[in-house]
Write a structure and sequence with these properties.
This protein has 370 residues and is an alpha/beta fold. The protein contains 13 helices and ten strands. It has a ten-stranded mixed beta sheet with strand order 7-6-5-4-3-2-1-8-9-10. Helix 7 links the parallel strand 5 and strand 6.
Length: 370
Protein backbone atom coordinates (compact mmCIF):
# COMPACT_ATOMS: atom_id res chain seq x y z
CA UNK A 1 0.00 0.00 0.00
CA UNK A 2 2.80 2.44 0.83
CA UNK A 3 3.93 2.71 -2.79
CA UNK A 4 0.46 4.03 -3.71
CA UNK A 5 0.46 6.93 -1.29
CA UNK A 6 3.16 9.38 -0.25
CA UNK A 7 1.92 10.41 3.17
CA UNK A 8 5.31 11.14 4.74
CA UNK A 9 7.41 12.66 2.00
CA UNK A 10 7.12 14.66 -1.21
CA UNK A 11 6.23 13.89 -4.82
CA UNK A 12 8.43 16.72 -6.11
CA UNK A 13 10.90 14.26 -7.75
CA UNK A 14 8.09 13.42 -10.19
CA UNK A 15 7.98 17.07 -11.37
CA UNK A 16 11.55 17.47 -12.63
CA UNK A 17 10.59 19.95 -15.35
CA UNK A 18 9.39 22.42 -12.71
CA UNK A 19 12.38 21.73 -10.44
CA UNK A 20 14.88 22.26 -13.26
CA UNK A 21 13.21 25.52 -14.26
CA UNK A 22 13.43 26.73 -10.65
CA UNK A 23 17.11 25.77 -10.41
CA UNK A 24 17.75 27.83 -13.54
CA UNK A 25 16.13 30.88 -11.95
CA UNK A 26 12.86 30.84 -13.87
CA UNK A 27 9.65 32.18 -12.30
CA UNK A 28 7.64 29.01 -11.98
CA UNK A 29 3.95 28.51 -11.23
CA UNK A 30 3.15 26.50 -8.09
CA UNK A 31 2.35 22.85 -8.67
CA UNK A 32 -0.11 22.77 -5.76
CA UNK A 33 -2.01 25.55 -4.00
CA UNK A 34 -3.51 24.97 -0.56
CA UNK A 35 -6.41 27.37 0.09
CA UNK A 36 -9.77 27.87 1.76
CA UNK A 37 -13.05 29.58 0.86
CA UNK A 38 -13.52 31.08 4.32
CA UNK A 39 -11.79 31.67 7.66
CA UNK A 40 -14.94 30.50 9.46
CA UNK A 41 -15.18 27.21 11.34
CA UNK A 42 -17.77 25.71 13.69
CA UNK A 43 -15.18 23.54 15.44
CA UNK A 44 -12.89 24.60 18.30
CA UNK A 45 -10.15 22.00 18.11
CA UNK A 46 -7.68 22.09 20.98
CA UNK A 47 -4.71 22.09 18.62
CA UNK A 48 -6.11 24.54 16.04
CA UNK A 49 -3.40 26.54 14.30
CA UNK A 50 -6.10 28.73 12.78
CA UNK A 51 -6.28 30.77 15.97
CA UNK A 52 -2.71 31.91 15.26
CA UNK A 53 -3.48 32.92 11.65
CA UNK A 54 -5.91 35.83 12.05
CA UNK A 55 -5.74 38.51 9.36
CA UNK A 56 -8.17 41.07 7.92
CA UNK A 57 -11.08 39.06 6.58
CA UNK A 58 -12.39 39.50 3.07
CA UNK A 59 -15.34 37.49 1.77
CA UNK A 60 -14.40 35.27 -1.16
CA UNK A 61 -17.23 35.55 -3.67
CA UNK A 62 -18.08 32.89 -6.23
CA UNK A 63 -16.62 35.11 -8.95
CA UNK A 64 -13.36 35.61 -7.03
CA UNK A 65 -13.06 31.86 -6.47
CA UNK A 66 -13.80 31.03 -10.12
CA UNK A 67 -11.37 33.71 -11.34
CA UNK A 68 -8.68 32.25 -9.10
CA UNK A 69 -9.21 28.75 -10.48
CA UNK A 70 -9.22 30.02 -14.07
CA UNK A 71 -5.97 31.90 -13.48
CA UNK A 72 -4.34 28.98 -11.69
CA UNK A 73 -5.11 26.64 -14.56
CA UNK A 74 -3.90 29.19 -17.13
CA UNK A 75 -0.47 29.73 -15.55
CA UNK A 76 0.21 26.03 -15.02
CA UNK A 77 -0.93 25.16 -11.50
CA UNK A 78 -1.82 21.47 -11.46
CA UNK A 79 -3.83 21.01 -8.27
CA UNK A 80 -5.59 22.91 -5.50
CA UNK A 81 -6.65 21.58 -2.11
CA UNK A 82 -9.39 23.21 -0.03
CA UNK A 83 -7.67 22.70 3.31
CA UNK A 84 -5.99 25.85 4.68
CA UNK A 85 -7.20 27.95 7.65
CA UNK A 86 -10.98 27.63 7.48
CA UNK A 87 -13.80 25.13 6.95
CA UNK A 88 -14.55 25.52 3.24
CA UNK A 89 -17.77 23.49 3.45
CA UNK A 90 -19.32 26.52 5.18
CA UNK A 91 -19.05 28.56 1.98
CA UNK A 92 -22.23 28.69 -0.14
CA UNK A 93 -19.98 28.27 -3.20
CA UNK A 94 -18.18 25.13 -1.98
CA UNK A 95 -19.80 22.57 -4.30
CA UNK A 96 -19.71 24.81 -7.38
CA UNK A 97 -16.05 25.66 -6.79
CA UNK A 98 -15.02 21.99 -6.74
CA UNK A 99 -16.86 21.27 -9.96
CA UNK A 100 -15.49 24.37 -11.70
CA UNK A 101 -11.93 23.57 -10.71
CA UNK A 102 -12.27 20.12 -12.22
CA UNK A 103 -13.84 21.56 -15.38
CA UNK A 104 -10.86 23.87 -16.00
CA UNK A 105 -8.41 20.98 -15.66
CA UNK A 106 -7.22 21.18 -12.06
CA UNK A 107 -6.96 18.26 -9.69
CA UNK A 108 -9.20 19.14 -6.75
CA UNK A 109 -9.05 17.91 -3.15
CA UNK A 110 -10.74 18.69 0.16
CA UNK A 111 -9.79 18.44 3.82
CA UNK A 112 -12.75 18.88 6.15
CA UNK A 113 -14.13 18.11 9.59
CA UNK A 114 -17.11 16.78 7.65
CA UNK A 115 -19.97 18.01 9.81
CA UNK A 116 -21.18 20.62 7.30
CA UNK A 117 -20.88 18.36 4.26
CA UNK A 118 -24.35 17.90 2.80
CA UNK A 119 -25.01 14.28 1.97
CA UNK A 120 -27.32 15.21 -0.90
CA UNK A 121 -24.39 16.86 -2.72
CA UNK A 122 -21.82 14.10 -2.23
CA UNK A 123 -22.68 12.38 -5.51
CA UNK A 124 -21.88 15.67 -7.32
CA UNK A 125 -18.46 16.37 -5.85
CA UNK A 126 -16.93 12.93 -5.26
CA UNK A 127 -16.41 12.29 -9.01
CA UNK A 128 -14.61 15.66 -9.24
CA UNK A 129 -12.22 15.06 -6.33
CA UNK A 130 -8.82 13.40 -6.26
CA UNK A 131 -9.15 12.91 -2.53
CA UNK A 132 -11.52 13.73 0.30
CA UNK A 133 -9.84 13.78 3.70
CA UNK A 134 -11.70 13.90 6.97
CA UNK A 135 -9.83 15.64 9.78
CA UNK A 136 -10.70 13.57 12.82
CA UNK A 137 -8.54 13.09 15.92
CA UNK A 138 -10.62 10.68 18.00
CA UNK A 139 -12.45 7.41 17.51
CA UNK A 140 -14.78 7.73 20.50
CA UNK A 141 -17.68 10.22 20.75
CA UNK A 142 -16.78 11.65 24.17
CA UNK A 143 -13.13 12.23 23.30
CA UNK A 144 -14.13 13.55 19.87
CA UNK A 145 -16.34 16.14 21.55
CA UNK A 146 -13.55 17.18 23.92
CA UNK A 147 -10.72 17.35 21.36
CA UNK A 148 -12.75 19.10 18.64
CA UNK A 149 -14.80 21.33 20.92
CA UNK A 150 -18.20 20.22 19.62
CA UNK A 151 -21.25 18.26 20.89
CA UNK A 152 -21.05 14.45 20.83
CA UNK A 153 -23.79 14.40 18.20
CA UNK A 154 -21.30 15.79 15.67
CA UNK A 155 -19.33 12.54 15.85
CA UNK A 156 -22.32 10.49 14.74
CA UNK A 157 -23.21 12.85 11.90
CA UNK A 158 -19.63 12.78 10.59
CA UNK A 159 -19.51 8.99 10.95
CA UNK A 160 -22.62 8.63 8.79
CA UNK A 161 -21.26 11.07 6.19
CA UNK A 162 -17.98 9.16 5.94
CA UNK A 163 -19.92 5.93 5.56
CA UNK A 164 -22.05 7.50 2.83
CA UNK A 165 -18.94 8.66 0.95
CA UNK A 166 -17.48 5.16 0.93
CA UNK A 167 -20.78 3.75 -0.31
CA UNK A 168 -21.04 6.25 -3.18
CA UNK A 169 -17.44 5.57 -4.16
CA UNK A 170 -18.10 1.84 -4.32
CA UNK A 171 -21.44 2.14 -6.10
CA UNK A 172 -20.09 4.49 -8.79
CA UNK A 173 -16.64 2.89 -9.06
CA UNK A 174 -14.94 6.24 -8.43
CA UNK A 175 -11.19 6.85 -8.24
CA UNK A 176 -11.47 9.34 -5.38
CA UNK A 177 -9.45 8.45 -2.28
CA UNK A 178 -11.28 8.74 1.03
CA UNK A 179 -8.97 9.10 3.99
CA UNK A 180 -8.78 10.13 7.63
CA UNK A 181 -6.18 12.37 9.22
CA UNK A 182 -5.44 12.43 12.94
CA UNK A 183 -3.60 15.41 14.37
CA UNK A 184 -1.78 13.74 17.24
CA UNK A 185 -0.61 15.56 20.33
CA UNK A 186 1.10 13.70 23.20
CA UNK A 187 -2.19 13.89 25.14
CA UNK A 188 -4.27 12.05 22.52
CA UNK A 189 -2.48 8.71 22.59
CA UNK A 190 -5.59 6.97 23.95
CA UNK A 191 -7.35 7.63 20.63
CA UNK A 192 -4.77 6.11 18.29
CA UNK A 193 -6.23 2.60 18.37
CA UNK A 194 -9.95 3.56 18.54
CA UNK A 195 -9.49 5.74 15.46
CA UNK A 196 -7.48 3.05 13.69
CA UNK A 197 -10.31 0.57 14.27
CA UNK A 198 -12.91 3.13 13.22
CA UNK A 199 -11.18 3.68 9.88
CA UNK A 200 -11.08 -0.04 9.24
CA UNK A 201 -14.75 -0.37 10.16
CA UNK A 202 -15.68 2.42 7.75
CA UNK A 203 -13.60 0.84 4.97
CA UNK A 204 -11.81 4.10 4.11
CA UNK A 205 -8.58 3.98 2.12
CA UNK A 206 -6.17 5.23 4.75
CA UNK A 207 -5.56 6.81 8.14
CA UNK A 208 -2.57 9.11 8.43
CA UNK A 209 -1.41 10.10 11.91
CA UNK A 210 0.53 13.34 11.94
CA UNK A 211 2.30 15.57 14.44
CA UNK A 212 0.85 18.89 15.62
CA UNK A 213 2.56 22.00 14.26
CA UNK A 214 3.30 24.91 16.58
CA UNK A 215 4.50 28.43 15.86
CA UNK A 216 8.00 29.76 16.50
CA UNK A 217 6.91 30.95 19.96
CA UNK A 218 5.44 27.59 21.00
CA UNK A 219 2.00 29.17 21.47
CA UNK A 220 0.15 25.83 21.43
CA UNK A 221 2.51 24.34 24.00
CA UNK A 222 3.41 21.14 22.14
CA UNK A 223 6.19 19.16 23.84
CA UNK A 224 7.73 17.27 20.92
CA UNK A 225 9.95 15.16 23.17
CA UNK A 226 6.86 13.37 24.52
CA UNK A 227 5.96 11.83 21.16
CA UNK A 228 8.51 9.11 21.87
CA UNK A 229 6.18 7.64 24.49
CA UNK A 230 3.61 6.95 21.75
CA UNK A 231 5.89 5.01 19.40
CA UNK A 232 4.65 1.53 20.50
CA UNK A 233 1.01 2.56 19.96
CA UNK A 234 1.81 4.01 16.55
CA UNK A 235 3.54 0.79 15.50
CA UNK A 236 0.55 -1.20 16.72
CA UNK A 237 -1.76 1.01 14.67
CA UNK A 238 0.35 0.58 11.54
CA UNK A 239 0.23 -3.21 12.01
CA UNK A 240 -3.53 -2.99 11.35
CA UNK A 241 -2.89 -2.09 7.71
CA UNK A 242 -4.29 -4.43 5.07
CA UNK A 243 -4.14 -4.59 1.30
CA UNK A 244 -7.12 -2.20 1.25
CA UNK A 245 -6.51 0.00 4.30
CA UNK A 246 -3.26 1.81 5.07
CA UNK A 247 -2.42 3.17 8.52
CA UNK A 248 0.68 5.35 8.51
CA UNK A 249 2.31 7.65 11.01
CA UNK A 250 4.33 10.60 9.70
CA UNK A 251 7.45 9.23 11.35
CA UNK A 252 9.94 11.69 9.89
CA UNK A 253 8.19 14.61 11.55
CA UNK A 254 7.17 12.79 14.72
CA UNK A 255 10.77 11.68 15.30
CA UNK A 256 12.27 15.09 14.47
CA UNK A 257 11.25 16.70 17.80
CA UNK A 258 10.40 19.84 15.84
CA UNK A 259 13.87 20.35 14.36
CA UNK A 260 14.69 21.11 10.72
CA UNK A 261 17.94 20.81 8.80
CA UNK A 262 17.45 23.74 6.42
CA UNK A 263 17.79 27.45 7.16
CA UNK A 264 16.31 28.89 3.94
CA UNK A 265 12.81 28.25 2.65
CA UNK A 266 12.55 26.98 -0.93
CA UNK A 267 9.13 25.31 -0.88
CA UNK A 268 6.47 28.02 -1.48
CA UNK A 269 7.17 28.51 -5.22
CA UNK A 270 6.13 24.85 -5.58
CA UNK A 271 3.38 24.59 -2.95
CA UNK A 272 1.75 27.91 -2.11
CA UNK A 273 -0.81 28.67 0.60
CA UNK A 274 -3.74 31.08 0.69
CA UNK A 275 -5.94 32.09 3.60
CA UNK A 276 -9.72 31.84 3.66
CA UNK A 277 -9.65 35.63 3.67
CA UNK A 278 -8.20 35.57 0.15
CA UNK A 279 -4.73 36.51 1.40
CA UNK A 280 -1.81 35.13 -0.62
CA UNK A 281 1.30 34.41 1.47
CA UNK A 282 4.19 31.95 1.14
CA UNK A 283 2.74 29.68 3.81
CA UNK A 284 0.00 29.43 6.42
CA UNK A 285 2.39 30.23 9.24
CA UNK A 286 2.66 33.77 7.86
CA UNK A 287 -1.07 34.50 7.53
CA UNK A 288 -1.26 36.48 10.77
CA UNK A 289 -1.25 40.25 10.37
CA UNK A 290 1.99 40.52 12.37
CA UNK A 291 3.80 38.86 9.43
CA UNK A 292 2.61 41.51 7.00
CA UNK A 293 6.05 41.85 5.43
CA UNK A 294 5.46 38.41 3.90
CA UNK A 295 1.97 39.20 2.57
CA UNK A 296 1.74 39.36 -1.20
CA UNK A 297 -1.83 40.23 -2.22
CA UNK A 298 -5.46 39.18 -2.01
CA UNK A 299 -7.50 37.38 -4.67
CA UNK A 300 -10.64 39.29 -3.62
CA UNK A 301 -9.00 42.54 -4.74
CA UNK A 302 -6.56 41.41 -7.45
CA UNK A 303 -6.63 38.57 -9.97
CA UNK A 304 -4.30 35.75 -8.96
CA UNK A 305 -2.49 35.81 -12.29
CA UNK A 306 -1.55 39.45 -11.66
CA UNK A 307 -0.41 38.64 -8.12
CA UNK A 308 1.78 35.79 -9.37
CA UNK A 309 3.29 37.97 -12.11
CA UNK A 310 3.96 40.88 -9.76
CA UNK A 311 7.38 41.92 -8.50
CA UNK A 312 5.99 41.73 -4.96
CA UNK A 313 5.33 37.98 -5.29
CA UNK A 314 8.90 37.29 -6.29
CA UNK A 315 10.39 39.75 -3.79
CA UNK A 316 8.80 37.72 -0.98
CA UNK A 317 9.91 34.41 -2.51
CA UNK A 318 13.47 35.75 -2.84
CA UNK A 319 13.43 37.00 0.76
CA UNK A 320 12.62 33.63 2.33
CA UNK A 321 15.15 32.02 -0.01
CA UNK A 322 18.03 34.21 1.23
CA UNK A 323 20.42 34.70 4.14
CA UNK A 324 18.16 37.50 5.39
CA UNK A 325 15.73 34.81 6.53
CA UNK A 326 16.35 31.93 8.92
CA UNK A 327 13.77 29.14 8.78
CA UNK A 328 15.16 27.65 11.99
CA UNK A 329 14.16 30.70 14.06
CA UNK A 330 11.66 32.67 11.94
CA UNK A 331 9.25 29.80 11.19
CA UNK A 332 6.89 27.62 13.12
CA UNK A 333 7.61 23.91 13.40
CA UNK A 334 7.13 21.29 10.69
CA UNK A 335 5.11 23.30 8.18
CA UNK A 336 3.25 22.09 5.10
CA UNK A 337 6.31 22.72 2.92
CA UNK A 338 8.71 20.87 5.27
CA UNK A 339 9.32 17.75 3.14
CA UNK A 340 9.55 19.82 -0.05
CA UNK A 341 12.10 22.02 1.69
CA UNK A 342 14.17 19.04 2.80
CA UNK A 343 14.29 17.70 -0.77
CA UNK A 344 15.23 21.07 -2.29
CA UNK A 345 17.80 21.78 0.44
CA UNK A 346 19.54 18.45 -0.23
CA UNK A 347 19.40 19.19 -3.95
CA UNK A 348 20.96 22.64 -3.54
CA UNK A 349 23.64 21.31 -1.20
CA UNK A 350 24.56 18.49 -3.57
CA UNK A 351 23.47 15.75 -1.18
CA UNK A 352 21.17 14.28 -3.84
CA UNK A 353 21.00 14.45 -7.63
CA UNK A 354 18.07 14.90 -9.96
CA UNK A 355 17.06 11.60 -11.51
CA UNK A 356 14.11 10.39 -13.52
CA UNK A 357 12.24 8.45 -10.85
CA UNK A 358 9.35 7.81 -13.25
CA UNK A 359 11.51 5.36 -15.18
CA UNK A 360 12.29 3.39 -12.00
CA UNK A 361 9.10 3.36 -9.96
CA UNK A 362 5.40 3.61 -10.78
CA UNK A 363 4.19 7.08 -9.84
CA UNK A 364 2.22 7.30 -6.59
CA UNK A 365 -1.37 8.46 -6.38
CA UNK A 366 -2.28 12.14 -6.09
CA UNK A 367 0.83 13.07 -8.07
CA UNK A 368 0.00 16.76 -8.38
CA UNK A 369 -0.39 17.26 -4.64
CA UNK A 370 3.32 17.56 -3.94
Amino acid sequence: MKHKYVLDGTKLPYHLDRVKAWLEGERIAPITIDWSLTRACTYKCIYCYGQLQENPREKISKKAAFDFLDDAAEIGVKATSLVSDGESTLSPHFYDVIKHGKEVGLDMAVGTCGYSLKDEHLHEILPALTYLRFNISAGEPSRYAYIHGVPKSYFHKVYNTMKRCVKIKEEQGLDVTIGLQMVLTPDFGDQIMPLTKLGKELDVDYLVIKHCSDDELGSLGIDYSKYSELHPLLREAESCSTDKYLVQAKWSKILSEGRRKYSECFGPPFILQMSGSGLVAPCGMFFNEKYKKFHIGNIVKTRFKQIWQSDRYWEVMDLIDSDKFDAETDCGTLCLQHKVNEFLWDLKKGNIKLEDVKSKDPPPMHLNFV
